[in-house]
Design brief:
There is one protein chain. With 297 residues, the protein is an alpha/beta fold. The protein has two domains: 19-54, no CATH class; 55-278, 2-enoyl-CoA Hydratase, Chain A, domain 1, CATH 3.90.226.10. It has helices spanning 3-6, 8-15, 37-42, 58-65, 92-103, 137-153, 171-175, 177-190, 205-208, 231-238, 249-254, 264-278; strands at 25-27, 34-36, 72-73, 109-116, 119-126, 157-163, 195-203, 217-220, 260-261. The strands form two sheets. The chain has a seven-stranded mixed beta sheet with strand order 3-4-5-6-7-8-9, with helices on both faces. The chain has a two-stranded antiparallel ribbon with strand order 1-2. Strand 7 (195-203), helix 9 and strand 8 (217-220) form a beta-alpha-beta unit. The longest helix has 17 residues, at 137-153.
């Protein structure tokens, strides 16, 4: 062993090593720019320079939306974890355990009841970190419970949709969630309650083919991928080059499938305004500190 080369350099490195967090900087997926983590967090998890909207967890989403970052979690029903005893490269039950450990969620949906600018609202968020936010029996039951809660509370139902479609490990049972969630949307219509969908990146497959495209109003975050099949599959099928920005939120807005593309920092105010309009509530009263006008003599 060479004492000078093998022992001294590691000792020196340890002596002068700085303890720095691993996530101090975030790399922009679009430009490759390195951005300070705190700056991204302060900008609602949007890269300041490129305006790239990063994926955020369901808890982060609810914190951005609800007043004072407080809400009540809606208890979600439990369903059998692995009804088909499915296995590919690993057991489906093991995949579920890994996803639950990683995210702290029972399944892809997290639902909260709270206030946005003083209005009671139920918000359901799909978390792409949980098996790509895919739609299975548990996610379908969660969506329905969120709709039922909105009906009980007589409040709007806002859904942040995201995911890669139906969960293949549950086969036909996952596909059955498409008509079931459609019936839940119908229940909201019969109760004359607003149903607002916010399409985030990505929203594809059976999610797009069901509740994600049944809203009274469809909002989308900038640059979100929205569609049924992916652009590569479509190109291979029709053997033609797709237009620039095809299946992105701005393209869908220009072609009538999305009502508005809303920046994440403006989402809370936009949803609150839409809910007031659809619930036929009076405009929000903005408090001012200006002195009252003097009475005429």
């Amino acid at each position: 062993m060479n004492w000078i080369s093998d022992v001294v350099p590691p000792r020196i490195k340890t002596l002068f090593k700085r303890e720095t967090p691993e996530n101090l900087w975030i790399k922009c997926p679009d430009t490759g720019q390195m951005v300070f983590h705190k700056d991204v967090e302060a900008n609602a998890w949007v890269i300041p320079g490129s305006d790239h909207h990063l994926h955020i967890s369901s808890t982060q989403r609810l914190k951005l939306m609800f007043d004072e970052q407080t809400w009540l979690d809606v208890a979600l029903p439990r369903v059998p974890d692995d009804p088909l005893k499915f296995r590919d490269s690993k057991r489906y039950s093991d995949r579920l355990k890994e996803a639950r450990t990683k995210t702290g969620l029972q399944d892809a949906f997290k639902i909260g009841f709270g206030r946005i600018e003083g209005q009671p609202i139920v918000i359901a968020v799909q978390d792409v970190a949980f098996i790509t936010g895919s739609l299975g029996t548990s996610a379908g039951e969660a969506f329905i419970r969120g709709a039922q809660t909105a009906i009980e509370k007589k409040s709007p139902y806002v859904v942040f949709a995201a995911g890669g479609g139906a969960r293949m490990q549950e086969g036909i049972l996952s596909l059955m969630q498409m008509p079931r969630t459609t019936i839940a949307v119908r229940m909201l219509r019969e109760a004359r309650l607003p149903y607002i969908v916010v399409l985030t990146n990505p929203t594809t497959g059976g999610i797009t083919a069901s509740y994600a495209m049944l809203g009274d109003v469809h909002l989308a975050e900038p640059g979100a991928l929205i569609g049924f099949a992916g652009p590569r599959v479509i190109e291979q099928t029709i053997r033609e080059k797709l237009p620039e920005g095809f299946q992105r939120s701005e393209y869908l807005r220009d072609h009538g499938m999305v009502d508005m593309v809303v920046h994440r920092r403006d989402m809370k105010a936009t949803v609150a305004r839409l809910c007031r309009l659809l619930m036929k509530l009076p405009p929000r009263q903005i408090e001012t500190t200006e002195p009252a006008p003097a009475e005429a003599a």
